[in-house]
């Protein structure tokens, strides 16, 4: 799993995740993801290139949201493909982290 970082106007950062968000992928990005969550005011997590989501991946996302919220920042998710979206909703993640169908909607929500 890899993270692509894109800085947008309005102090918004997009973190695009690529690959399988399984245990191996989650371990690979956990530290850099937590750093992003700690350093950024507004973070969009783009899951459009994530083909699989495990419970460890959900844990990483929830931890990032907790870090962001704890410092008065915001973290949202966008573009999960159908199976990944179903996993996030079934796990209740969408109750804690807003999920948007498009990147533009996620950016607008933070803007």
Structure description:
The protein has five helices and five strands. With 111 residues, the protein is an alpha/beta fold. The protein has a single domain (2-106), classed as 2-Layer Sandwich (Transcription Regulator spoIIAA). The chain is globular, with a radius of gyration of 12 Å.
Oligomer: single chain
Roughly what percent helix? 40-55%
- Mean pLDDT value: 96
Order of helices and strands: EEHEHEHHEH
- The second-level CATH architecture is 2-Layer Sandwich
Radius of gyration based on Cα positions: 12 Å
Alpha carbon gap, first and last residue = 28 Å
Number of domains: 1
The side-by-side strand order for the widest beta sheet comes to 1-2-3-4-5
CATH superfamily annotation = STAS domain
- Shape verdict: globular
Helical run tally: 5
- Based on secondary structure, the structural category is alpha/beta
Would you give the CATH topology? Transcription Regulator spoIIAA
Strand content: 25-35%
The profile of the biggest β sheet is:
5 strands, mixed
**Can you tell me the CATH class?**
Alpha Beta
What's the total count of β strands?
A: 5
Compact overview of the structure:
The protein has helices spanning 23-39, 55-70, 82-90, 93-96, 103-110; strands spanning 2-8, 12-21, 42-53, 74-78, 99-100. With 111 residues, it is an alpha/beta fold.
């Amino acid at each position: 799993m890899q993270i692509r970082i894109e800085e947008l106007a309005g102090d918004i950062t997009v973190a695009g995740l690529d690959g399988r968000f399984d245990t191996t992928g989650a371990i690979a990005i956990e530290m850099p993801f937590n750093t992003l969550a700690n350093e950024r005011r507004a973070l969009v997590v783009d899951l459009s290139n994530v083909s699989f989501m495990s419970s460890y991946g959900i844990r990483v996302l929830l931890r990032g949201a907790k870090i962001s919220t704890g410092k008065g920042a915001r973290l949202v998710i966008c573009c999960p493909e159908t199976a990944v979206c179903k996993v996030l909703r079934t796990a209740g993640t969408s109750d804690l982290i807003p999920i948007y169908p498009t990147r533009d909607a996620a950016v607008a929500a933070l803007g």
